[in-house]
UniProtKB/TrEMBL annotation:
The protein, known as: FAD-binding PCMH-type domain-containing protein
Source species of the chain: Agrocybe pediades
Entry keyword set: FAD, Flavoprotein, Oxidoreductase, Signal
Leader peptide range in chain numbering: 1-25
Gene Ontology molecular function: FAD binding; oxidoreductase activity
Superkingdom classification of source: Eukaryota
Family affiliation: Belongs to the oxygen-dependent FAD-linked oxidoreductase family.
Domain FAD-binding PCMH-type: start-end pairs: 67-237
């Protein structure tokens, strides 16, 4: 998704962002009794940090400052047994808690809390098994580390597309990847979950061991317990081609034509792009990522995109880790809202409407402290679910492929929160109506949960699967322990 930004404009923000943690001073209140009880029962593999402690700030930190909350303590579990112990204690006391993987949720309270923050960072192993062509991946990792660990084995996974994204939230919500055209979403490639159930039982969930729970975990986030490890299919990989381009406002028309051409005509499943219509520092700008799963894309595929003049670009044959590092992102610490509109096709007219939305809201929101107003065009092939037909909680429909357009707005002043929230909804409505007016049948298109606003109804994301997910939830978590954690709730 979006949010790659012109790096020079962001330098000032990086500096501000780096200073923020200094402002976090512990106040001299008594430690929370629930935190003290957790501290007493956990093994030496785990730790509890109170406000002011060394790991507290990183434990509650999120990519979006608007998603961070001050918890009573941070618990870093180092074993699934200790995860079970924490669930038992918060369940007994009905203490709110949160589970954080990479901390990239932009909805407040999804992986943050004013109660007990569980930070999964100690689950950080990657174990590749050449025989089964799978990898066991700790739930505290970000994809950068996973790619780095798998690269020496010449394999890769269907994982994150930019730097810093957590394995856990990405995989528990769906997972649109550079390899999605070939292998489906990340949920389509999970073969096992190591799960701590809400009743404290630790087990491995597979299609064979528990088909209902296996289905529910493929999109159902933290409703069914805490995942400590994912086993994913791996795929051969010996280098990729790709990188980024920044395109000035004056060249956006030419680029839009090239993007529309790519969306309509490129059928090679190894090729993919993200084209981002943005508005940064008072200017329209496009940032774009090109990807080919192989060191040399066949001639023709990217010619039109590469012919567009750029302000800055870095596209080459390289390793996956070099690619992930090369694509510049905005800084952490901005307030962020993310929204999505499912569309069937990025036509030239729809792209023009999206470009206009970006410029319109960029201007409108500039006085409110806008840093980024971006719309990420993420085209995928129309047969990705036909070739990966297994039932998953998300997406609820597999006979059509809805493309998850991502609206992603970032700002600084907290008092502007309501303005940005209202704007992202208004803009989403304009795009939705425009797609419908073009004859795109998107009425039943599911919204991608990992991009959706927190108030999105379950039926808008999980469609016909909602009743089934409610049923499974009742069996796995009759006392609704996981209801003490935020997020979309069954
Ligand atoms: C810059 C950026 C780029 C992105 N790019 C993409 C992309 O290319 N494709 C895509 O599909 N999405 C993308 N996303 C969306 C991303 O998938 C979600 O933000 C995702 O939830 C992030 O996972 P995380 O572990 O970092 O999040 P977190 O905030 O840590 O967690 C998100 C949710 O998962 C739950 N959770 C986390 N760990 C566990 C666990 N161990 N057990 C149970 N529940 C858990 C949390 O409680 C929370 O509800 C992007 C987001 C950003 C900000
Ligand atoms: C967290 O606490 C610090 C220090 O007391 C305070 O400056 C900050 O505003 C608090 N953050 C939130 C989100 O409440
Ligand atoms: C990975 O590929 C490289 C280049 O093709 C090769 O030299 C190396 O031996 C391979 N490594 C493994 C573990 O197969
Ligand atoms: C641009 O978008 C705004 C806001 O949706 C709308 O009012 C305006 O008519 C649009 N302009 C064009 C040329 O489409």
């Amino acid at each position: 998704m979006g949010s790659i930004t012109f790096s020079k404009a962001m330098t000032r923000l990086t500096v501000l962002g780096a200073l923020l943690p200094l402002a976090l001073h512990a106040t001299a209140t008594a430690p929370d009794p629930v935190c003290l009880q957790i501290q007493k029962v956990i093994s030496r593999a785990s730790a509890v940090f109170l406000p002011g402690d060394e790991h507290y700030a990183s434990g509650i930190a999120h990519w979006a400052s608007s998603s961070s909350q001050n918890s009573t303590c941070v618990m870093e579990p180092g074993s699934s047994k200790d995860v079970a112990a924490v669930l038992r204690i918060v369940g007994q006391h009905e203490t709110p808690f949160a589970v954080k993987g990479g901390g990239h949720a932009s909805n407040v309270g999804f992986s943050s809390t004013t109660g007990v923050q569980i930070a999964m960072s100690r689950f950080s192993d990657v174990k590749y098994d050449a025989h089964s062509q799978t990898a066991e991946i700790g739930a505290g990792l970000v994809w950068d580390d996973v790619y780095a660990a798998l690269e020496p084995h010449n394999v890769s996974v269907v994982g994150g597309r930019v730097s810093g994204i957590g394995v856990a939230g990405f995989t528990l919500g769906g997972g649109y990847s550079w390899l999605t055209n070939q292998h489906g979403l990340t949920v389509d490639t999970v073969v096992a979950y190591e799960l701590v159930k809400p009743n404290g039982q630790v087990g491995v969930v597979t299609e064979a061991s528990d088909p209902d729970l296996f289905f529910a975990l493929k999109g159902g986030f933290n409703n069914f317990g805490i995942v400590t490890k994912f086993t994913l299919k791996t795929f051969p990989s010996t280098g990729i081609w790709g990188g980024f381009q920044f395109i000035a406002g004056s060249d956006i028309a030419q680029n839009t034509a090239a993007v529309a051409d790519f969306c309509a005509n490129v059928k090679d499943p190894k090729a993919n792009i993200i084209a981002d219509y943005g508005f940064v520092s008072g200017q329209p700008i496009m940032s774009q990522i090109l990807f080919y799963d192989g060191p040399n894309p066949p001639a023709g595929i990217f010619d039109k995109l590469l012919a567009v003049p750029t302000m800055l670009a870095d596209v080459s044959s390289r390793s996956m880790t070099s690619f992930i590092k090369a694509v510049p992102l905005g800084t952490a610490g901005l307030r962020i809202t993310s929204h999505t509109v499912p569309v069937l096709q990025f036509t030239p007219s729809l792209l023009n409407i999206i470009a206009n939305e970006s410029a319109f809201w960029g201007n409108q929101l500039a006085p409110k402290g806008a840093q980024l107003v971006t719309y990420a065009i993420e085209p995928f092939q129309a047969d990705i679910f036909k070739r990966n037909p297994d039932k998953t909680a998300y997406p609820p429909v597999r006979d059509a492929v809805f493309l998850p357009l991502n609206l992603y707005f970032a700002w600084l002043p907290p008092q502007s929160d309501d303005d940005f929230h209202a704007a992202v909804i208004a803009s989403g409505d304009v795009i939705r109506k425009a797609a419908l007016a073009e004859g795109q049948d998107i009425t039943n298109g599911p919204l991608y949960p990992n991009y959706a606003l927190s108030e999105t109804p379950l039926s808008a994301m999980y469609g016909k699967n909602v009743a089934e997910l409610h049923r499974i939830k009742k069996i796995v978590d009759p006392k609704n322990v996981m209801g003490l954690a935020g997020g979309f709730k069954f």
